[in-house]
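Field reference: "sequence" (input) and "structure" (output). Example, Putative short-subunit dehydrogenase-like oxidoreductase (DUF2520 family):
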Amino acid sequence: MNIGFIGAGKVGCSFGHYLKQQDLPIVGYYSLSKSSASYAAVLTKSSPLNLDELVNQSNYIFITTPDDEISNVWEKIFNYDLKDKFIFHMSGCLSSDVFKGYKDKGANCYSLHPLYSFADKNSSDLKDVIFSVEGENIEKIKNFLEKANIDYFIIDKEKKPIYHASAVFISNYLVSLAKIAENLLLDCGLNKSQCVKGIYPLMESTLNNIKEMGIDNALTGPIIRGDINTVREHLSYLDKYNDIYRKLGNIALDIAKDKSNLSEDTINELNKILRGDHNEKNCSHF
């Protein structure tokens, strides 16, 4: 098993480093940026290679470029001898269908994607991360997945966009929610450093609650408690974030309904408030 990477960004470097930590052989990296390929090679004790060298020396090839470049990379390597090679891309949204004509080449093609946020090129602590795997004849790569100590689930190619959207919600939009919280706290007179000190422990404790108790049981706050006036008061102050609060509040209310801890009257009243039926006439600013 000789592993090569096309693309030496955050995902390529981090995943290659992880595989090296599992004692798997990394041949090297090809990248349009020679400095990036050299950095990745040093990180994984491998070599910066040209495209010919990488394809010819590797029987496991990982394409770790931006999504829009994957089909272009595939076109570049399509004319090489790919018989019995295992080729992966690591897009969360795209399926193995991007490898058009791979069966005619005798190749085995898959998508492999970790549910993880790669903030830099050294994010290689992936032992507790779950990966999605998609493609035909998954059994052919089970040996690799086991040697790489990869915890995985098999996903239908038609579900990849939904799957990736879920990752965007929990990763990218978590940052967006943190930004909203920061803006509100700045308006309260905190500085940016104080905002982070306030936001991070609250986020961390919520994530720990999710891990320990599950998502539904981790919900706290005014909606799960049925604090009608508190929700009203929030909405009277939120201005441009009002609509986001209402939509997320409806999801929180769905959880409260499922848990059956609120009276029907309270649920109905919260429904009206979150729809905007009461607007400002029931709100008072202190």
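The longest helix spans residues 160-187.
The longest strand covers residues 108-114.
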